[in-house]
């Protein structure tokens, strides 16, 4: 039976134990309250993660240490190393600069920064920093090598090779110096010398993985596939836990066109490196790079289940979910990442993407503006902020952000692609040519840059230049359908119908659902006055690719040409049912319903579509036009204003709203401004010239009004309204003969013209 009496004394060893526990408790309490001890705890934890290759987690711990002591130089340097490992060059640069601000004599940080500057194209700055180190340490081999590489970066290869040889003289037994010289010789087209120096480096250090890989890559560049494979397999055998060796072998197989072998190498890597994040992620990253979306999603879903605490996996999986429109699932992942680290910039960028996908562009702008402010060097944040700005129709800010993203990361294709696509929409040939050329340099094996560059030529009516680019696109991507379809378009523009048809057919053979190619063939049928053939062609394609919204949209267009409005309406309805974002089909369906006086149904179609596509101004404009037809100008004005809230410089909404304001006593100065916006955006549309002229007329600027009305008549000489308006303007300036002439012309052109009675009365009042 256990006694409830307290013992009056303790044995000596018990007393010591109690004393020790008490001291330990005091020590732990003191430690938890001591910032210096706490920062060291974070720092050591970061080192532990770093040694295991878990660089994102290490970075978090170093950041925690820096929150306690912003001048903790060792943590800044360690954080820079994390960023270097994951390829975040701008962040690494910033942390190295902070390290040197605190400890200016830190040679390691100085040399790392010099190397980073040389690699980033700032060779002169890297050269200066390397020389600074050599002044105090003339035998520093690493500084000498950086000096050599900076000379190469400045284009002076003879001097670079001399400097590299000096590095070897400083330490003839340093293998890396021979590797550096070999790499310079490769760039100088001295393959024999390079091979000899690679071999010498390996004779000094046969187990150096970087040297073996560099030698293999040399063979790969020489297309000596067997020798390259041998080196990469040697690297794998030498260091089975090294992820880069397996990645190099997979890349070799890809270059040889053996994707199946590359995939198997990465499957083996995943099994062998199951504790190495970089290793087990490679298979999923391979699927992403190949564009195999379903495989990538399945792989990262599996990885996330196996490694739920791997932040890099979580981010990659969230990115895939966003691209596949599974934004709710992605949001849960991003929320979990930010809960553990609210400063994770990449997670904030992902959150911005999610908001954009949810149609909350304004919220995305606010989120990403904060992200860019906190991490101004993050190119992805600038790019996504540009996307958000574009969604709220602030194209000027969007372009500025994309340009900054391109500056921060010169080989980042997305900003250049966005700039080029926007330039094409704005018909800005100069910007389109520049951005698409940059895209070509970044992705020379992708057809997209060449096709966009071809569009720049087309904007300048240079068919020969466009054809040259399209041929290049066909050359680099012979299995891609888009170049063949674009070549068909060029041939069609030249009226070379047979040759165009062959190109379109080739595109369809490569991709049966290529609606643009099928559309080209249908256009040829219609040009040949063969509407039945066009219809048969579309219907036949629909048997191959059933339930395709684009094909039903095309079917509706063909049925319209065949004057079968009922069949066209049915096809457009099916297209909308299959794809609620098919705006072309929605607008055509609305027009057909309106034309048969089913305006209520048309209104319902537009309103449902606006709910699904709240940022597409075409829907607001179409619905406003429907209300105008009913005579409900107040509701029409409201809808045009909503369109302009989404896109402030939309020319059609501006033009139509201006005219309604002038007709119903609105603010004339505002109407003039809107009409000028409409005219700028629609310079060849007679209606826009007439609206601006009508605005000038109401403003009392009659001579300017006359110029605009004359422009409108040049574009549409048989429109009675334009002649009527011109007649009124001539009357105001006292040119009675011209006023009479224009008013009489208006009557002749429109016997049942709505304003005919007013014109007759006005003519009776004019002096003879």
Description:
The protein is mostly helical. The chain is built from 44 helices and no strands. α6 (107-119) packs antiparallel against α7 (123-136), α6 runs parallel beside α8 (141-153) and α11 (191-204) runs antiparallel to α12 (209-221). The longest helix is centred in the first third of the chain and has 22 residues, at 12-33. The radius of gyration is 35 Å and the shape is elongated. The protein starts with 11 loop residues before the first helix and ends with a helix. Residues 1-32 have low confidence and may be disordered.
Kindly summarize this structure in a few lines.
This protein has 768 residues and is mainly α.
Topology:
Layout: H1 12-33, H2 35-51, H3 55-68, H4 73-86, H5 89-102, H6 107-119, H7 123-136, H8 141-153, H9 157-170, H10 175-187, H11 191-204, H12 209-221, H13 225-238, H14 243-255, H15 259-272, H16 277-290, H17 293-306, H18 311-323, H19 327-340, H20 345-357, H21 361-374, H22 379-391, H23 395-408, H24 413-426, H25 429-442, H26 447-459, H27 463-476, H28 481-493, H29 497-510, H30 515-527, H31 531-544, H32 549-561, H33 565-578, H34 583-595, H35 599-612, H36 617-630, H37 633-646, H38 651-663, H39 668-681, H40 686-699, H41 702-715, H42 720-732, H43 736-749, H44 756-765
């Amino acid at each position: 039976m256990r006694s409830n009496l307290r013992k009056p004394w303790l044995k000596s060893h018990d007393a010591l134990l109690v004393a020790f526990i008490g001291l330990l408790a005091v020590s732990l309490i003191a430690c938890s309250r001591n910032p210096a001890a706490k920062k060291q705890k974070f720092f050591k934890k970061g080192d532990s993660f770093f040694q295991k290759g878990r660089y994102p987690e290490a970075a978090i711990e170093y950041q925690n240490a820096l929150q306690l002591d912003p001048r903790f130089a060792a943590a800044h340097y360690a954080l820079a190393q994390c960023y270097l490992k994951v390829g975040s060059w701008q962040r690494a640069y910033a942390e190295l600069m902070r390290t040197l601000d605190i400890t200016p004599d830190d040679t390691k940080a100085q040399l790392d920064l010099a190397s980073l500057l040389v690699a980033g194209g700032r060779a002169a700055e890297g050269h200066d920093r390397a020389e600074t180190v050599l002044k105090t340490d003339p035998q520093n081999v690493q500084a000498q090598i950086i000096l050599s590489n900076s000379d190469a970066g400045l284009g002076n290869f003879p001097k670079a090779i001399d400097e590299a040889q000096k590095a070897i003289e400083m330490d003839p037994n340093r293998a890396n110096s021979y590797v550096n010289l070999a790499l310079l010789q490769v760039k100088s087209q001295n393959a024999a010398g390079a091979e000899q120096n690679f071999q010498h480096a390996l004779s000094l250090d046969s187990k150096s993985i970087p040297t073996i890989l560099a030698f293999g890559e040399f063979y790969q560049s020489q297309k000596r596939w067997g020798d390259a494979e041998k080196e990469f397999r040697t690297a794998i055998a030498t260091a089975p836990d090294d992820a880069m060796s397996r990645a190099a072998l997979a890349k070799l197989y890809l270059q040889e066109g053996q994707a199946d072998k590359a995939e198997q190498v990465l499957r083996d890597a995943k099994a062998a490196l199951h504790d190495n994040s970089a290793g087990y992620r490679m298979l999923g990253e391979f699927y992403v790079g190949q564009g195999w979306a379903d495989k990538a999603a399945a792989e990262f879903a599996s990885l996330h289940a196996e490694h739920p605490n791997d932040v890099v996996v979580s981010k990659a999986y969230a990115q895939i979910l966003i691209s596949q429109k599974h934004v709710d699932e992605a949001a849960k992942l991003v929320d979990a990442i930010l809960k553990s680290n609210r400063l994770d910039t990449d997670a904030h960028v992902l959150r911005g993407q999610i908001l954009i996908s949810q149609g909350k562009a304004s919220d995305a702008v606010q989120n990403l503006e904060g992200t860019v402010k906190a991490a101004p060097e993050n190119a992805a944040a600038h790019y996504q902020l540009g996307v958000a700005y574009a969604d709220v129709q602030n194209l000027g800010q969007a372009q500025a952000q994309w340009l900054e993203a391109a500056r921060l990361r010169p080989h980042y294709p997305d900003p250049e692609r966005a700039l080029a696509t926007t330039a094409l929409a704005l018909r800005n040939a100069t910007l389109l040519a520049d951005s698409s050329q940059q895209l070509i340099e970044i992705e020379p094996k992708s057809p997209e840059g060449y096709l966009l560059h071809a569009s720049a030529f087309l904007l300048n009516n240079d068919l020969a230049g466009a054809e040259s680019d399209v041929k290049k696109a066909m050359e680099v991507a012979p299995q891609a359908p888009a170049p063949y379809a674009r070549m068909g378009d060029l041939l069609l523009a030249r009226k070379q119908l047979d040759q165009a048809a062959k190109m379109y057919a080739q595109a369809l053979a490569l991709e049966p659902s290529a609606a643009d190619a099928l559309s080209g063939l249908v256009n040829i049928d219609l040009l040949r006055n063969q509407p039945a053939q066009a219809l048969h062609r579309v219907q036949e394609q629909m048997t191959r690719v059933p339930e395709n919204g684009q094909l039903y949209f095309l079917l509706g267009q063909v049925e319209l040409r065949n004057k079968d409005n009922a069949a066209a309406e049915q096809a457009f309805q099916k297209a909308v049912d299959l794809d609620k974002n098919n705006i072309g089909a929605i607008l055509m369906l609305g027009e057909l319903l309106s034309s048969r006086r089913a305006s209520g149904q048309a209104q319902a179609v537009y309103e449902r579509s606006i709910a699904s596509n709240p940022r597409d101004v075409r829907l607001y404009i179409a619905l406003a036009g429907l209300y105008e037809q009913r005579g409900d100008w107040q509701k029409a004005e409201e809808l045009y204003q909503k369109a302009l809230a989404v896109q402030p410089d939309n020319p059609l909404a501006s033009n139509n709203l201006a005219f309604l304001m002038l007709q119903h006593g609105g603010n004339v100065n505002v109407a003039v401004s809107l009409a000028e916006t409409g005219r700028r955006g629609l310079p060849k549309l007679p209606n826009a010239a007439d609206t601006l002229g009508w605005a000038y007329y109401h403003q009392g600027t009659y001579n300017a009004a006359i110029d605009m009305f004359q422009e409108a008549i040049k574009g549409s000489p048989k429109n009675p309204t334009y002649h009527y308006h011109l007649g009124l303007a001539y009357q105001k300036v006292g040119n009675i003969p011209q006023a009479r002439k224009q008013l009489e012309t208006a009557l002749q052109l429109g016997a049942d013209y709505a304003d005919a009675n007013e014109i007759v009365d006005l003519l009776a009042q004019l002096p003879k």
